[in-house]
Write a structure and sequence with these properties.
Helix content is about 20%, strand content about 40%. It is α+β, with helices and mostly antiparallel strands.
Length: about 230
């Protein structure tokens, strides 16, 4: 599996909703500044609710819609997160595939080839940027995204946020928009959707999320035991 396929597989998200933007790109500077301040305050509140855990495990269902073939692919699996900077992504059905991300590298394994591949982040700045942003989506450090994304509120309750890559963001080459939906208690993600520039979209729904649960070292092994 090449780097582009891995990026698209990992990049998450886009909901078909009516958009009422909180931030507009035109209009008076004072109005834009006020709305920017409102967004920052909102994201700060979200961060405080999400940042309380040190580790997390959650199940997920991912639906990939392919624009060209007008078809849908559904996969299921598990995600493990351990702060700071460790994420394990295991697909169990219909194929077996694993990605383990650290601050230095990305290791991946797939059932088709049976091989483990490693990508160094130090020699791949674009890939590093994607991986860093992926960690942000899962950890809830959303204020840091303001420099790379235009942010808008799509729905107030439950909260749904839209993130559009700015022109200086490497993600703009692949991603058109990211939509993040939070749980009712706003303690974690309920769903995340990516709309790609190609017209493809990926939606990931999180389920059975457990905070600060014991995580076994084998959960961060790219070629792990069969469940």
């Amino acid at each position: 599996m090449n780097i582009r396929k891995t990026l698209i597989f990992l990049c998450l998200i886009s909901l078909s909703v009516t958009v009422y933007p909180l931030i507009v790109r035109g209009g008076a500077a004072a109005e834009k500044e006020a709305r920017s301040s409102e967004i920052r305050e909102l994201l700060s509140g979200v961060e405080q609710k999400i940042s309380g855990f040190r580790s997390l495990k959650t199940g997920f269902v991912q639906e990939k819609n392919l624009a060209v073939f007008k078809s849908r692919i559904t996969i299921r699996g598990r995600i493990y997160l351990q702060k700071p900077g460790r994420i394990a992504w295991h697909v169990d059905d219909p194929v077996r595939y694993s990605v383990v991300i650290s601050d230095k590298s990305v290791r991946q394994w797939d059932e088709d080839t049976g091989r483990v591949q490693e990508i160094s982040l130090s020699g791949n700045p674009v890939f590093r940027s994607f991986m860093d942003q992926m960690a942000v989506w899962f950890s809830g450090d959303y204020i840091s995204l303001l420099k790379d994304y235009e942010v808008e509120v799509l729905q107030r309750s439950p909260l749904v946020l839209g993130f559009t890559p700015k022109e200086n963001n490497p993600a703009v080459k692949i991603i058109k928009k990211i939509t993040v939906g939070l749980r009712e208690d706003e303690k974690y993600l309920k769903q995340i959707t990516i709309l790609e520039s190609s017209g493809d979209s990926t939606t990931i729904i999180f389920k059975d999320t457990v905070f600060d649960a014991p995580i076994d070292s084998s959960d961060f092994e790219v070629k792990r035991r069969v469940r």
